[in-house]
Design goal:
The structure is a homodimer.
Chain A (H helix, E strand, L loop, with lengths): L3 H15 L8 H8 L3 H13 L3 E4 L3 E4 L1 H23 L8 H8 L7 H8 L35 E7 L4 H9 L7 E7 L6 E5 L4 E4 L1 H5 L1 E3 L1
Helix pairs in contact in A: 1-2, 1-4, 2-3, 4-5
The structure holds a DNA duplex (30 and 30 nucleotides).
Chain lengths: ~220, ~220
DNA sequence: TAATAAAATTAGGTTTGCCTAATTTTATTA
DNA sequence: TAATAAAATTAGGCAAACCTAATTTTATTA
């Protein structure tokens, strides 16, 4: 059984390994992802290597073993199921659920995830549009195309969000954007790459390039 | 904010303070309740005293301060609400829910308990018959009369159980006893105080005195 | 390539919450 | 009351998971 902290490292490493822009998972990348000191990460790399949950090579960085990946996916499964619960059953807002799920995901009990899954009606996606791994570890592919890749004039459907911070989600809420919203790209400003968009055929609104990068489309 | 461990101590102290047979909460009583070494309890007594959650007097033992009592009740509230959730929504068995709730009760988030309470329809009692504290800390009185105090020939309604161990609950399950079951006391065996009872007017069954002490009646 | 910057690692330290073993205090009983 | 037993406490230690500061290794760039 893994500790709370080990689970957080596994999850962070899994997340980094899913990011197409990250080619090598380095000590410092993990440190940044978790807000820890690199020296602490070195300690944990040793520990997880001993437990055969990761492999570490100075050149290639950190990689999850099959065992480590399995564990990481089960934590993510629990995280995403709890998010669905918090939003749908306890009526929390979109931007509130992530932090609570960070705690709930560590509750260990053989079939808790499976019972929760059944209770929620076997949801496919969590409220942020991320696929929920199945009990056997199978997981639909995440949405990877960003609205930043869309063509000017095109209309796209919001499928998921990349950033799950409450700052971003609150901004989306303010703009009345959620999963399923239609967004049309009207114009790109050459100066700073900001974009003029229309949300569900509404009035034109200007948003930053950083903003559109964090919106994933189907 | 209190740590996981501090919360467990507060809860144990509260539980002991509710037991009519316990007049003084000693270092060793707490140690036994938590399965820890008395030396560890001494450490924690110092810590909780510094945090003004308890008061300690060599003669009188440990007592929760108003602040400590408030915190303890909130943990118990969460524990009992999660138990209702696990039984009613996730369809866990009676004897499985206690251990999972022991973990869930430590999840901290301002209004999680209140939202859960609302979602569950503001239940008054948990599945073991213990009253669930309200958001303001008010709590109905626990059932305290034991079936062991009943008169031979009398019929009583099971209101709660004193022991929440899975061994005891599984035995109850086997005997088809749950909250609300009617039990008639047929005869007491003088030799070892065991009792012959009838469960919901069924065939006579013999149970130990230890068994009946752990059944609370209304 | 040499100089510099960045990343990784080591060494040593802290806090939390537990432990064992030894000692002191308190209670019980002959 | 004295002897003994039980309870409480102290002293010192350990593992987990962090940290800072110093050092070494690796990468970048003048």
């Amino acid at each position: 059984m893994n500790t709370f902290s080990e689970e957080n490292y596994l999850k962070a490493i899994f997340r980094l390994s899913q990011m197409p822009t990250v080619s090598k998972i380095s000590t410092s990348a993990i440190a940044e992802a978790l807000g820890n000191n690199p020296a602490s990460v070195v300690d944990m790399i040793r520990k997880l290597t001993d437990k055969q949950l990761i492999e570490y090579d100075k050149k290639k960085g950190v990689k999850l073993t099959a065992h480590g990946q399995k564990d990481a996916i089960q934590i993510i499964r629990k995280h995403r199921l709890w998010e669905v619960f918090l939003l749908e059953k306890l009526e929390y807002r979109w931007d509130e659920i992530h932090d609570i799920a960070e705690e709930l995901e560590h509750i260990k009990h053989s079939d808790l995830a499976d019972r929760l899954d059944k209770f929620l009606g076997f949801p496919e996606y969590d409220p942020h549009g991320d696929p929920i791994p199945k009990a056997n570890g199978k997981m639909a592919k995440s949405f990877s195309a960003s609205l930043a890749d869309g063509k000017t004039g095109g209309t796209y459907r919001v499928a998921a969000v990349r950033d799950t911070s409450s700052a971003f989600l609150q901004y989306l809420h303010k703009l009345k954007i959620s999963i399923g919203t239609q967004i049309r790209l009207i114009e790109q400003i050459a100066f700073d790459q900001s974009l003029v968009i229309s949300i569900d055929n509404g009035e034109p609104t200007t948003v930053s390039s950083k903003f559109v990068e964090n919106i994933l489309i189907s």
